[in-house]
């Protein structure tokens, strides 16, 4: 019989180990947690119980929500076309490139090739946001542009998965209607509610936000969508309230990064089967390289066109080449619905996890741009970079 306390101790012990390693090697804790999870999953065998899956899923939802709250309207209005263009091309280039290769290069069926293309078309809001918070780039102009482009990219992924494979029914219509109503009401009701309840030890603001996220996430699951999609939209809707009260997102980040997100990143790493990876290493490398190459071909020229500095352009392109949440969700969708088999799932998930580690590591080590807080960029007499 499972001893929930000992299992919890193992997971949190691994999370603590990852934190210490990340401090020692100056690497994002999210990436270290993925690698520690992979090592532990293949040596001691991490138990993916129902409660672990819940905490990991809630961690992804909360992290995605917090990423949405970082979207600054004035920055997005100033850089709307760059964020939109980079996001759309960031989805289309790898989707089409991987789809064509899977269908005609290795003779996967059309539905299997579509799953491959969708799985590797993503960015990783979770990884990118975690890196932004650790480095402080979530408070910079370039950081907010990247987060907005990540959202557009992943929205394309979700829409593609929905259009190609979803069942259009009344549940989907209900989910859309309730989400639209919530997005209209929250910016009006939430600030009033936060003012009334104030900052209390019982954290009523956090409980209210969690209620909204879990409620919409439940409807999304019933409708065949994903719980993380409404989380990002809710975050964007509440961004002005969060920007006006920096203490609230700080408290929520403590909750997320202490308890919830370690389960998500450790679980993502534990899904990698080293034996299966070795058996299909060549194909995994090809898929990973194809994703990164198509991202670079599509995005890097756009960063030049929109007058990003050289390091900013490389940093943006590399972070847009990441993938994790929606990539693994798409691959798991294909497996559970019998579209792809276990071997194909392992290939895709490993390539997706590789894309969470490789480009992020390169970006942090060699292409991190100069830190430019928004306060400085928007200060009088200091013109911000304008789009072409």
Automatic annotation (TrEMBL):
<keyword id="KW-0406">Ion transport</keyword>
<keyword id="KW-0472">Membrane</keyword>
<protein>
    <submittedName>
        <fullName>Potassium transporter Kef</fullName>
    </submittedName>
</protein>
<dbReference type="Pfam" id="PF00999">
    <property type="entry name" value="Na_H_Exchanger"/>
</dbReference>
<dbReference type="GO" id="GO:0006814">
    <property type="term" value="P:sodium ion transport"/>
</dbReference>
<feature type="transmembrane region" description="Helical">
    <location>
        <begin position="170"/>
        <end position="187"/>
    </location>
</feature>
<feature type="transmembrane region" description="Helical">
    <location>
        <begin position="347"/>
        <end position="367"/>
    </location>
</feature>
<dbReference type="GO" id="GO:0016020">
    <property type="term" value="C:membrane"/>
</dbReference>
<feature type="transmembrane region" description="Helical">
    <location>
        <begin position="145"/>
        <end position="164"/>
    </location>
</feature>
<dbReference type="InterPro" id="IPR006153">
    <property type="entry name" value="Cation/H_exchanger_TM"/>
</dbReference>
<feature type="transmembrane region" description="Helical">
    <location>
        <begin position="80"/>
        <end position="102"/>
    </location>
</feature>
<feature type="domain" description="Cation/H+ exchanger transmembrane">
    <location>
        <begin position="14"/>
        <end position="362"/>
    </location>
</feature>
<keyword id="KW-0739">Sodium transport</keyword>
<keyword id="KW-1133">Transmembrane helix</keyword>
<feature type="transmembrane region" description="Helical">
    <location>
        <begin position="276"/>
        <end position="294"/>
    </location>
</feature>
<keyword id="KW-0915">Sodium</keyword>
<dbReference type="InterPro" id="IPR038770">
    <property type="entry name" value="Na+/solute_symporter_sf"/>
</dbReference>
<keyword id="KW-0050">Antiport</keyword>
<dbReference type="GO" id="GO:1902600">
    <property type="term" value="P:proton transmembrane transport"/>
</dbReference>
<keyword id="KW-0813">Transport</keyword>
<feature type="transmembrane region" description="Helical">
    <location>
        <begin position="208"/>
        <end position="232"/>
    </location>
</feature>
<keyword id="KW-0812">Transmembrane</keyword>
<feature type="transmembrane region" description="Helical">
    <location>
        <begin position="314"/>
        <end position="335"/>
    </location>
</feature>
<dbReference type="GO" id="GO:0015297">
    <property type="term" value="F:antiporter activity"/>
</dbReference>
<feature type="transmembrane region" description="Helical">
    <location>
        <begin position="252"/>
        <end position="269"/>
    </location>
</feature>
<feature type="transmembrane region" description="Helical">
    <location>
        <begin position="51"/>
        <end position="68"/>
    </location>
</feature>
<feature type="transmembrane region" description="Helical">
    <location>
        <begin position="114"/>
        <end position="133"/>
    </location>
</feature>
